[in-house]
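Worked Example 4.2. Consider the chain below.
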Amino acid sequence: MGRSGAGKTSMRSLIFSNYTANDTRRLGATIDVEHSTVQFMGELNLNIWDCGGQHKYLDNYLGEEKENIFGNVEVLIYVFDLETNNREGEYTLYDECLQGLETFSPDAKVYCLIHKIDKVPDDQREPTVESYRRALAKRSDRFQPGVYGTSIWDHTLYRAWSQIVYTLVPNMAIIKKHLYNFCRLTDATEVVLFERSTFLVVCCSSFGGDDEDAINEKYMSVSQVIKMYRNMCRQNQSAFRSVQVRNKHYTMFIEPFTKSTYILVITVDPEIEPAVTKANIEAARNHFIKLAD
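Applying the procedure from the previous section yields the following structure tokens:
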């Protein structure tokens, strides 16, 4: 949800339809509501409603179609346009959307994306997002939204969407526990699970390395780079399969794992042969198929 031109369709196309940032320039305005269903992590179907932001549609969403739009919602993603000249008007629309949720989906989660953050100088980005975060906390009552600065031109969009889908995977705690055990038993330094089609980070684990937040931040950039590289492979009619990097500091593998995931494994012990790590990945595959698919 958000006003026309905020970038809602562009980010959806980038994450779920393999568009590049440049490709989104040919997208037109969304007419009314565009429905799409995306399969994520095996059996999880995400029903995404991309709501056009023109005034005539917004009036309809908040009027006679209110129950249809806001009923049975699991997650509301509100996109704030940093190029707007009417920030108070944005807040008013956001308030009205929350009123709809309060009535028809009171248990929904809310995320606010402060979009086009690339338009803001680097040293002003976090203060800008924080000012929105404070304002939204005051007017969001029970919903306590997650607030992220995003841009289609860098990894920030992947970071935000990874956090959003993380809350939707029902057995995430179990997956994380088993990923940590895999990390520990194989003497890996870091292990990251990516969703196969979107390459969003599903979860990660570290054994003796960085903390989880630092790993997440690092691998959001990997998400973006790998997806761009995979798109280039498709354009050249080549198939992306896997990545292996080995130098004096570490060995890294990105391998297909289950039907719906890729796995990234990093080891820093030079005595661990790559063949051993690949054998460990293969040995763990069937176990994780039961969890992730």
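The chain has nine helices and ten strands. The CA atoms of residues 13 and 19 lie 6 Å apart. Compare this with Example 4.1 before moving on.
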